[in-house]
Design a protein that fits this description.
The protein has one domain (2-141): Mannitol-specific EII, Chain A. By secondary structure, it is α/β, with parallel strands linked by helices. It has helices at 16-29, 35-48, 104-118, 121-129, 133-141; strands at residues 2-11, 53-55, 58-59, 73-83, 93-100. A hairpin with a 2-residue loop joins β2 and β3 (58-59). The protein has a five-stranded mixed sheet. The model has no long low-confidence stretch (mean pLDDT 95).
Length: 144
């Protein structure tokens, strides 16, 4: 679901594009997608707006599988300072979880796994406040 190198804490993004690029580049660094996929994530934001800001403080940028997804994976970027994406209800964003899926079924599975993790109060607290990337990784790899 996630590679250790796809986790970044307190990333210094100042714009939505910088935050999306961080999430995409973390997927790229863990061989989950191509550079074209990362650019498509940013292009989707420009074309469709902040549709992927799905809850208060939470964004899940992604692109279509055929735009360069290689494996199903998530990246985890916690921003140093929240960033406004332009969403009327869910701004500003602190957590950016990039998604790479090679098909619709994988996309749905990743989102279901994330919803399960985010609904656990302890896990969500860890996501927001831990200074240890290994603790974040552990939340993804251990059943709660």
């Amino acid at each position: 679901m996630i590679a250790r190198q796809a986790i970044q804490l307190d990333h210094p993004a100042n714009t939505p594009e910088q935050a999306i690029l961080a999430a995409g580049n973390a997927l790229l660094a863990s061989d989950a997608c191509t550079e074209r996929y990362v650019q498509a994530m940013v292009d989707n934001f420009h074309q469709f707006g902040p549709y992927f800001v799905i809850a208060p403080g939470l964004a899940m940028p992604h692109a279509r599988p055929e735009q360069g997804a290689l494996t199903p994976q998530i990246s985890f970027i916690r921003l140093r300072q929240p960033v406004a994406f332009g969403h009327s209800d869910n701004d500003p964003v602190s957590l950016v979880l990039g998604l790479s899926a090679t098909g619709q079924d994988q996309h749905i599975q990743l989102i279901q796994q994330l919803v399960t993790l985010l609904s656990n109060e302890h896990t969500y607290h860890t996501f927001l406040h831990s200074t240890d990337a290994e603790a974040i990784f552990s939340c993804f790899t251990h059943k709660n």
